[in-house]
Structure formats: C-alpha cells, structure tokens
Amino acid sequence: MLDELHVYDDIEPKPAPLNMAIDEALLADAGAPILRFYRWRMPSLSFGYFGRYAEVADQSDRREIVRRWTGGGIVPHGDDLTYSVIIPTSDPFFAQSSLEIYAAIHDAIRGALEANGVDAILAKCAAPKISEDCFANAVRSDVISAGRKIAGAAHRRSRAGLLHQGSIQHGHLPDPFRTDFARALCDRYETKRLTPELMERAASIADAKYSTTQWQMRR
To answer: What domains does the chain contain, in order, with CATH numbers?
Structure first.
C-alpha cells in the first residue's frame, strides 16, 4: 500500500488535548506516511469537528473530553487501541479518494485482526444512523466482527496531507497486532520517537486550541 512508513508507538499516556495536538504537529511536518499508536492519561472521549458539545457535556465528570479536528461521531477512549495514519500530499497514496483510503486502511486492520485470531469483515454499506455514538453506526468499510462494529475512523484533508484518526474497540489486542497492522500498510517501516521539538510544538497547539473552551464549545 505504501512505499515507506514511519511508526510511532507512543507508549506514554497523554492528556486528550495533547494527543490531538501531536497528530496535528506530525501532519504539519510529515515527509513520509506515519502510523501512530497512542494512549490516554485517563478515560477520555473525543467527538467530531462538526459535533455539538452539548451532546457530550454530561460525561465531563467521568471522562476528559476533546473535540477532534477530524469529523465523525462520539468515541470513548481508554480501553480501545487508538491510532492515526498521516499521508502527506507528496505520497502517491494521497491522490486516492477518501473512500479508497478509508477502505484500504480498514482492510489492513481486518487483515491484522485475522492474523491474530479475530474474524472480521468490512461493512459493505452504511447502516441506518441511530445515534451520535460512532460505534453504534457502521459506515461503508468499517470493520465488523461478531456482528458489531469494532473499528471506525474519521479523516480530513489539508494542504499538508490527510489525517486519519481511528479507534479499535476489541478489548485487549496482542502486541503482534500493531506490527501486523504496520506491515499491512508497508512491508518495510521505520520506528520513530517523538522528538522534544515536536512535543514542544504540540504542547503549544494543545494550549492554543484543543484545551480551550472556545474550541470545545464552538458548536
């Protein structure tokens, strides 16, 4: 799928605003496609750019809430495996349609799940929307296992590239899953660490944007 890939397995749990800001900082500087796995400092909830804060406000006493830059519905975090894929405009994969990219990334997840003993398929069409909860509503190419959606995502394009933010909600996945997912995206990949310079930029983005009341309550 990709000719090169940088993989960040971000082991240290981070605040929700900082997790969003790191993705944005990585997108701005990406010279190659990126796969990042990340964790949450406490039980959290992210909701899409076009969502309404009023729909999640009642959970603020139980979860750290953050508005994503990408679209999509309401996603609980903490027990899930959260990841992002970044495709810079310079990579040929960026030229594919959003639907094609979404399906390709989710097919890589499906293959990695099956390599780890989890039967899964891609949804052939969208199910009727029943709530703003992302995992209550499967769309085309979401990952389905045992009759329920277990992997969904949202992405957004910018002048720098495409940011795809996803969640896999299937209890504990074995460590080889992350390696299998990366290999499904690219046969040869390079592991990376978040640099102090990138973390400094991400902290500034989090303070100016994702941590602010103005951003959270913009709708």
So the answer is: 6-216 (3.30.930.10)
